[in-house]
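REQUEST ID: PR-0412
SUBMITTED BY: lab tech R.K.
PRIORITY: routine
TASK: structure prediction, single protein chain
INPUT:
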Amino acid sequence: MSLAWLALILGGLFEIGWPLGLKNSYSEAGTNLGWIAFSIVSMTLSGAMLFYAQKTIPMGTAYAVWTGIGAAGTFAVGVVLFGDTLNAIRMVSVLLIITGVIGLKLA
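STATUS: complete
OUTPUT:
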């Protein structure tokens, strides 16, 4: 795996961090500056990793993979940590996102 793909995967994982930080900050009425800072750092690192990855990986592929990792990961965090609804339609939908990301990586 090239460094660009590694950066893209890491960027996607950091993409999960900022909604997590915002959700935790919101649950504390926006008073926890630590979670807000966590969100800002996650956004910055996520964007920086995407920027680096796009130097090698085509823009459309990089962006779709980056957002796919973020979307599927945020979905999983919501279900596991915050009790978001998990039903068949939602599971199939997130599996379609993951399938699309895998397809773009293989193409």
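NOTES: Helices lie at 3-27, 33-53, 59-82, 88-106.
REVIEWED BY: pending
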